[in-house]
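ASSEMBLY PREDICTION REQUEST
Request ID: AP-0331
Submitted by: J.K., bench scientist
Number of chains: two
Total residues: 672
Priority: normal
Notes: Please return the full assembly, not individual chains.
Input sequences:
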Amino acid sequence: MTVSKESQARLGEVAARVAGHVEQAMRLDIAEALQNCDPLLAEVLEYAIFGGGKRIRPLLTVLSSTICGRRDDQLYLLAAALEYLHVATLIHDDVIDHARTRRGRESVRNKYGMAVAILAGDWLHARSMHLIGQLTGPDGLSVFCRATGAMVDGEYLQIRHAGNLALTEEKYFAIIERKTASLIASTCMLGAMFAGGTSAQQQALGRYGQKVGVAFQVVDDLLDYLGNQKETGKKVGNDFLEGKITLPLIAALEKANEEEHKELHSLLTGDRSDVQSCERLRVLLDRLGGFRFARDRAESLVQEAVASLEMFITGDEQESYQLLVAIAGYILARKQ
Amino acid sequence: MTVSKESQARLGEVAARVAGHVEQAMRLDIAEALQNCDPLLAEVLEYAIFGGGKRIRPLLTVLSSTICGRRDDQLYLLAAALEYLHVATLIHDDVIDHARTRRGRESVRNKYGMAVAILAGDWLHARSMHLIGQLTGPDGLSVFCRATGAMVDGEYLQIRHAGNLALTEEKYFAIIERKTASLIASTCMLGAMFAGGTSAQQQALGRYGQKVGVAFQVVDDLLDYLGNQKETGKKVGNDFLEGKITLPLIAALEKANEEEHKELHSLLTGDRSDVQSCERLRVLLDRLGGFRFARDRAESLVQEAVASLEMFITGDEQESYQLLVAIAGYILARKQ
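STATUS: Completed
Returned structure:
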């Protein structure tokens, strides 16, 4: 699936405009919430929230609501709430992974210490839930909390299977469906709920978000091997270093003959911090078609995502539809 | 203020009964929420939630609702939600403090590692919010999220003032009002809101919870110096070791002459892990009336808490009133 240059340019414009609105909503909301609070809290939140970020999740919320017929200032606040949760998970992830940097800057954990980082994540978590409860009621909150629960569940599944070379493709997808996709699905669904969309519309957008979320993670896992550190802002080969078993490797293990199997095993159980091991692994994965396999899967998922939006093809909100399709295409094209 | 033996015994009975109901509610809720989830998540939650604990917060919720005229099975679920949040904060606190033990057992962090601990706290946080949104609606959720926000704010204030010997009594109370009392206040207030209590009833119970919460922390800080490790399950002198400035010390510094001031300073800026330093500090604090001062403050706060309940003296729920009074008295009597 390819997206026309025109569509891409239009997506870029809209994304920037929405990001501006959402950032404005976050600034106002934080200022209101932090009245009489400790200045350190304000400083840390400012640092964590306004340090870049693609703002894809809030864009999905805005488009999912718009395609169901509602766009107003409150919508940007809902989108802000979803971005808060995303930022909270990044802050906690960086504590868990002992990450020193995030988006080319020091991580919150590194700059302010673990205690401040964990607490800042908790604050954003609470604020996010508060806004979602206000804006979408108990039903929306329920969708959202199920998704955050699933996220934790996916992380546990991943932790339990770290270094497990027998991880199946099925389990791999089970992990990323929970860890990454469930929250993106809820991001879309909440937009539809906020707009008062029909149940069918909510389901369609939730399915779109689910597929896009899984594709996003598959591409993320590909970029971990193939990305350019300058573009991704992340060290290449990080998953290999941490013993995370991802799709290119699973597919390669499936195809490997006895000798190749042995070599893959020895690379993965040996000194993974050795740069040459990572390079050698990449060569093997490429030769065994692991990257191609993952790429194909991502493409199918994106097609399925787009197909989920069928009911909107003839709707009133042509532009929102086109933009959601363009986002799905962008997932495949992204380099960071 | 002293509470009769009879009242104490009755409180013990009711507390045990309510704890049983709340634990049952937590078991059912967790089982429902964890359908198809990773078994590790179930194991960790079981370990974290059912490892003892006084269940004071859920008891306060139950009594605050009952005194406003409502008690049913749903109430125990609301109380469970408040206990979840409490457990979540303990799990995150133990990560932050690198605590190896909790209630005489290994901490979650120690037993399962930091990643699992942070994520378990996040899961409980989300589940708690979900239930509170369902049971008390957006208004209840708003009260609750403000309280959790205040808790983080109080922790930040405390972090910023760690080791600050010039900490004033006013700042000390500002810290513990946010860190400890705001959540206990919301625990009571949500009980009243759940029962459909009048605004005056909600305010009265919120004020009661606020005062009880502050008194609770003052006594906690006293027990840190004077408690018996076997009874409290915590190492005595921990606050001193961590450089936390609490009320006995603030009061003693206020009273100290030049020489005593010097000695206090040298103890606090010297090797705090020295057992003899802690013992010497205790002697000084006692001589300067620091413990007496903190004790008096706790007693006044408990009296204020009880006074907040005035409107319920002549109400229909005499027993709930008596039990809330007994809890306030228990705060002063507790040894753990």
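REVIEWER COMMENTS: The interface with chain B takes residues 33, 37-38, 40-41, 44, 92, 95-96, 114-116, 118-123, 125-127, 129-130, 133-134, 137-138, 141-142, 145-146, 148-149, 152-153, 155-157, 159-160 of chain A (CB under 8 Å).
SIGN-OFF: pending second reviewer
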